[in-house]
Structures are given as structure tokens and as C-alpha cells.
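quick one before i forget lol
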Amino acid sequence: MQISGTRLLLPLPPVASRPPPLQRLRVGQVLQATSLSGNIDGKVELRIGVTRLIAQTQLALEPGQPLSLRVEKAGPLPELRLLIPPDLAQLRASALKQVLPRQQPLGPLLQRLSSLAGGGDPALPGQVRQAAAGVLAGLAKVDSRAFTAELGAALLDSGLFSESRLLHGVARPTDLKLNLLRLLGLVKTLSGDPALLHRTPAKTATPPAAEVPGEQARQALDKLGRLLDGALARIQTHQLASLPGDDSGHQAWQFELPIMGRGQIDLLRILVRREAGPGSKAIAPRPVWSLTLQLEPPGLGPLRAHLRLQGETLSTRLWAEVPATAGLLQAHLPELRETLESSGLKVDRLEAHRARLPADKPLPSDISLLHEKA
């Protein structure tokens, strides 16, 4: 048996007295093997199932190392190839290629859900409108006295941590991604069963007489389904972009939070970054945290705030597109400084500017979908 690079050639004299059933191997078959020894003079002992072999290879294998081998060539002298699993960066890039073409901003879906929750579009079954109202009921409300606490809970319910919280059994009924998935499942179920389109729940606000033909309902369901799929792909994009990268200590988390207030739904975009701060071998580096907020309050226009924190030192820069809003920010900078300093922070820089804000980007700048070595 010989391993050249990632290729394995069989057979060599087996360790066991009985020859292995190599003639049963099929091209494309994947075998699970274990290295029983390290590489000694270009040879290593392997176990495939109950069969023990001696292989020739230049690979540095460790005793007990599991291997996945694929049959490249069958016959008297089979060839096997070592399968190397993709790393996290490759898996993330592959997943992003699938969700990026589908992702859409959350705004259009939220407007649609708000209309449905208000009783709009009688073409859709009542249970869809009820489910839409349930999604909106879990959003943070800006006019609530407990808005600060609700905002913290909204970060956890944004969908970024849905699978992690499910794994630990702490998922909440207000989780945005899970609620959208449930609603999408309902839409698909109704679309696939025409009989369900003519059923009216016992407690629906739409009487049976107001129902419309099933074909119109299916078209409305298809449109809603596309909006849901695009919004879920958007959340998945944020999840993939928030996965840890290399071991340099850099990581970013993206959030897109729907906030209820003043009879409408606003989107609060948040980007949190952690970077390894300056340090030395003797002194551990203190991480640098940055927070970017972007929102568009009614009457104020687009706003963006960037905060950078290292230790107890905070730098803050604010931007507004509307001149009057920029003037308001500059006029209230002393109050903001006083509030920050009263919290025990050392304010290094505090500025407000008028500027045209860049377009929203769904991915941090440090993520690439291209292989530079291709």
C-alpha cells in the first residue's frame, strides 16, 4: 500500500495473516480508517474495519488519527484518496453563495405583516393573519417603559442565536427567525393543499362570505412566501457573517432589529466588532470593541452612530443626512458627554457631522466569497 500526497495504493503485505477483501471495493466508496502508528520510514499501519494494513506514504499521520478514504480506482491494485473536510471559511463561503442571491431587506416583509395583522388582504386565510400578528407581538416597543430590557431581549431574539439557543433548550416564543420559519411553514402548507384555502377558522374576523377564489389566495400566499424566504435568507446572511473567522481575535456580529413605535415598524441595524487591542508578550492585549448603529427615525432622516471602546475610554462619532438633524446632534453633544461620563467612561472624542450615509451592506468588509488562489 502506498500513499503519495493524498493518494493511497493498495495492497502491500497485510499485517494480518488473512488478506483483506480488497476485491470488494467500489469506485466512489468511502471508507473510515484509523492510523495505528505514526509515519516510520514512509510506512504507517492502518485499520480499515477489521482489516489491518501497512501503507506507504509521505503524510505525517499520528497514532489514533481517524481518516476518511475514497476509492478512486478498483481492481487488483486499488487506489484510495484521503478526504480532507472543508474548513469553516470554506463552509461559510459556500453557504453565503446560496443565501446571498435570495436575501432581501426585512422592511417589505414587516410592512406586509403589519398590513395582514391589521386585517388587510382578505384573500389570505385568517390563520395567516393571526400568525402575522403573533410575529409582530414579539417585537420590542419603543414606547414601552421596559424598552431597555426589551431591546436586550430583542438582540437575543433577532435570529442570530436561534440554533444555539435551541441546542441549549432556551429558545423563546418571541424568536424572530423561528416565528418566520413557522409562518413560512404555514404558508407552504396552505399553498400545497387547495382545500385548506377555503376553510375559515372558528374565530376569524373574515366571514366565509368574504372569501375570494382559491387561485387569488394562492397568489397572495406565493407572494408572502417569497418575502418570508428573502427575509430568512437575510437573517442567515447575518448569522454566517457573524461566525468567528481566524484566531486573531477579530469577530463581528450583525443585527437587524424591528422596533415597534408610533404606529409603524422601524429597523435598527447594529454591527458589533471585537478586535485584538495593542499589547505585548508580558501584557495581555485589551480587546477593542466597536458598535455601529444605523436607523431612520421619522422626521429626522438617516442617522448613524459609531462608538469605539477600549478599556474605559470611549470615542463616539455621529452622522446625520438632514442638516437640521445634524444641528440637533451638535447642540446636544454636551448633554451626551455628561451622560457618558456619569457612567464612569472616559470620553476621548465626541463629534457630530452632516454626511450622506453609505448604503447598507449585508456583509462585513473582511468577508470574501472569492478564492484569491483560484
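fyi The chain has nine helices and 14 strands.
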